[in-house]
Write a structure and sequence with these properties.
This protein has helices at about 5-20, 95-105, 130-145, 155-170, 180-185, 230-245, 260-265, 270-295, 300-315, 320-330, 360-370, and strands at about 25-35, 45, 50-60, 65-70, 75-80, 115-120, 190-195, 205, 215-220, 335-340, 350-355, 380, 390. By secondary structure, the protein is α+β, with helices and mostly antiparallel strands. It has two domains: about 5-205, Ribosomal Protein S5, domain 2; about 210-380, Alpha-Beta Plaits, CATH 3.30.70. About 50% of the residues are buried. The structure holds alpha-D-galactopyranose. The site of alpha-D-galactopyranose has 12 residues, from helix 5. Alpha-D-galactopyranose binds near residues 33, 38, 41, 176 and 228.
């Protein structure tokens, strides 16, 4: 896609900004989630794939404890002291990067200052996990630069994902679960990653080679505002916690699909009933989606995506007019399956489409957006990509 020259260009930008060579360049991908939304913090299942859009970081250690950081997308250089960093110390986009260094120190690792140049190629605020991509690229750079133990192999990368989640929750102030960071660090090419957040379960890699079926995964970024630290995402999390409290359970994962009606009757409000119904049925849909993928059953997949979208629109109430329009238009224009993806309240939707129909379906969605006076959407097919890596 965007070319192998990005790491070279980022190293060049580092030289221009800080004089001298960076020690290396690292990258980490954004993600789309095939299914399983707002399930991660409910100890549920989800099924993300990494996308080819990445955040690149050129880095070099410093002798002091300062972090100098600049982004090729945001004007201005910042200098932040590692010693001044406290939990809850929000510093805009840079908090996602510096927060990772803070979280590594909190976990007992020896970290020093660092010079960083960031080139974020995951569209910002698109619901495609630009923040997790930044965290994971910085985390991988820190592991190499400071020769940190315990973060190699799949096990190590799972631990590193935990560090990145802590940075996002405690420093950046976004109360997210762990799906995005796990996807960015553990995904594999042409596979979807089945994540189970109920305890220490190893992820499973599920073949997801749409091209072999003449199909493509179309990302539909509505470009409608999406943010995970403005309270709405946190509200959903609190509502789920309130339901868990009323039910006297450890988590919503403890509600078996067969016992859903019983659990719903025990809840005090219709709102909590709808939230719980979404989470419990969504976790079940992840299991069914994996079975459908293994069986190449795209008709079943179509139904599962449709139910998932309806559940997010009506029960969890995280969709938007733009997301609904993208999904409905893609389906009427010939997509096999479509749903919104990620945290919601704006952001992106996905569709599985015949590869020969990518252009027509994209035009149909763009036309529908224009007819409704929405911002022009960003539409692009993606192939499931590999995880965060050292580039040079
Ligand atoms: C965001 C969060 C994830 C997850 C999704 C919804 O992407 O970062 O942890 O909760 O929303 O599935």
């Amino acid at each position: 896609m965007e070319g192998r020259n990005i790491p070279v260009a980022v190293a060049g930008a580092f030289r221009d900004a800080f004089a001298g060579e960076p020690s290396g360049v690292w990258s980490a991908p954004g993600r789309v989630n095939l299914i399983g939304e707002h399930t991660d913090y409910n100890r549920g299942l989800c099924l993300p794939v990494a996308i080819p859009h990445r955040t690149y970081v050129a880095a070099r250690p410093r002798k002091d404890r300062r972090v100098r950081i600049l982004s090729l997308q945001v004007p201005g250089e910042r200098t932040i002291s590692l010693d001044g960093l406290l939990s809850g110390n929000r510093g805009g986009w840079a908090a996602y990067a510096v927060g990772v260094l803070w979280a590594l120190e909190q976990a007992g690792h020896r970290i020093g200052g660092v010079d960083l140049v960031v080139d974020g190629r995951v569209p910002l605020g698109s619901g495609l996990s630009s923040s997790a991509a930044l965290e994971c690229a910085v985390a991988l750079a820190a592991v190499d630069l400071f020769r940190l133990d315990g973060f190699h192999g799949d096990e190590g990368r799972r631990a590193l994902a935990g560090v990145c989640v802590r940075a996002e929750n405690d420093v950046a102030g976004a109360p997210t679960g762990g799906m995005d960071q796990s996807a960015s660090l553990l995904a594999r090419r042409d596979t979807a990653l089945l994540l189970d957040f109920d305890g220490d379960v190893a992820p499973r890699h599920v073949s997801f080679d749409l091209a072999a079926h003449g199909l493509s995964l179309l990302v539909m970024n509505t470009r409608a505002v999406h943010s995970l630290d403005d309270g709405q995402y946190g509200n959903r999390r609190e509502e789920c916690a309130a339901a868990v409290g009323e039910l006297g359970l450890g988590s919503l994962r403890d509600v078996a699909p067969a016992d859903l009606d019983l659990a719903l009757r025990r809840l005090s409000s219709d709102l909590l009933r709808r939230r719980v119904r979404h989470v419990v049925t969504e976790v079940d849909r992840v299991t069914r989606t994996v079975a459908a993928l293994v069986a190449d059953d795209f008709a079943a997949l179509s139904e599962l995506f449709a139910h998932s979208h309806a559940s997010m629109r009506d029960d969890f109430e995280i969709s938007s007019a733009e997301l609904d329009t993208a999904v409905e238009t893609a389906i009427s224009a010939g997509a096999l399956a479509a749903r919104m993806t990620g945290g919601g309240f704006g952001g992106s939707a996905i569709a599985i489409v015949p590869s020969s129909g990518v252009d027509d379906i994209s035009s149909a969605v763009a036309n529908a957006f224009s007819a409704k006076g929405f911002r022009e959407p960003e539409l692009f097919p993606v192939r499931a990509d590999g995880p965060a890596r050292r580039e040079r």
